Amino acid sequence: MHSSKAIILSIATTDSGGGAGIQADIKAISATGGYACSVIAAITAQNTQRVTAVHLLPQDIIRAQLDAIFSDLPVAAVKVGMLGGADTINLVADALEAYRPRHLVVDPVMVSANGDILLAPEAVDSLKQRLLPLADVITPNLPEAASLTGLPVPASLSEIEPLIGALEALECRAVLLKGGFLQQEPRSPDWLLHNGEVRCFDTPRVITPNTHGTGCTLSSALASYLGQGLELELAVASAKHYIEKAIEAGTRLKIGQGRGPVEHFFAR
């Protein structure tokens, strides 16, 4: 007897500490029932405290990885994470336009939770012009959404509305705006902007330092659920539930001296 799983591709960057990037993507996709494969765009030296080095891979190596995956595996969904620069963004956009995967989730990674700049400022225009129009859904956090729109980062729920309006004007089919940075709020809200409507998904806020890789994990889980056939709203709700439980279980971990990871395999 043969069985198959939805094949989910992560195009992103490594995290040598294992909590974010490609490593987190593979864990999240596997934990949510998909088959994870990867295209590495860059290699980082990082841990729970900081990013100390970033090495962008040569363009021909990135393209070879993309061609190897798409020429053999029936990819059900793609998650794009940190790409690092405009050249890589344009290369990945060219490949996605050529191969046309059924679902595309773009996590516009620009700044780490520790404040490290992960996307060159001049690459933001390439991201907006080339990748966002291809995406089924993008998943910015508040600082990333502010960078994409030119608005200030909201400091409270009362300042969210202008940002939502500006995000709705972007050239993408849907936006999942992540509100986890509103640390003073008792709940952790995310907003799905789709077809002219706004739906809020919120959960009780878990007080923990172990939040390294939460954005990567959420977007990968979302891609995994979309690739397995869930409609967008149900996929968002499922991904939100998954990351909530992963953060809760992660409170019991002690990995590293800084922001530790979530527990991707809490259901074992």
UniProtKB/TrEMBL annotation:
Keyword annotations of the record: ATP-binding, Kinase, Nucleotide-binding, Transferase
A GO MF term: hydroxymethylpyrimidine kinase activity
Pathway named in the protein's UniProt entry: Cofactor biosynthesis; thiamine diphosphate biosynthesis
Top-level taxonomic group: Bacteria
GO cellular component: cytosol
Biological process, per Gene Ontology: thiamine biosynthetic process; thiamine diphosphate biosynthetic process
EC number: 2.7.1.49
Alphabetical list of Pfam families matching this protein: Phos_pyr_kin
Stretches assigned to the Pyridoxamine kinase/Phosphomethylpyrimidine kinase domain: 15-262
PANTHER family, per database record: HYDROXYMETHYLPYRIMIDINE_PHOSPHOMETHYLPYRIMIDINE KINASE THI20-RELATED (PTHR20858:SF17), PHOSPHOMETHYLPYRIMIDINE KINASE (PTHR20858)
UniProt name for this protein: hydroxymethylpyrimidine kinase
Organism for this UniProt entry: Oceanimonas baumannii
Taxonomic lineage of the native organism: Bacteria, Pseudomonadati, Pseudomonadota, Gammaproteobacteria, Aeromonadales
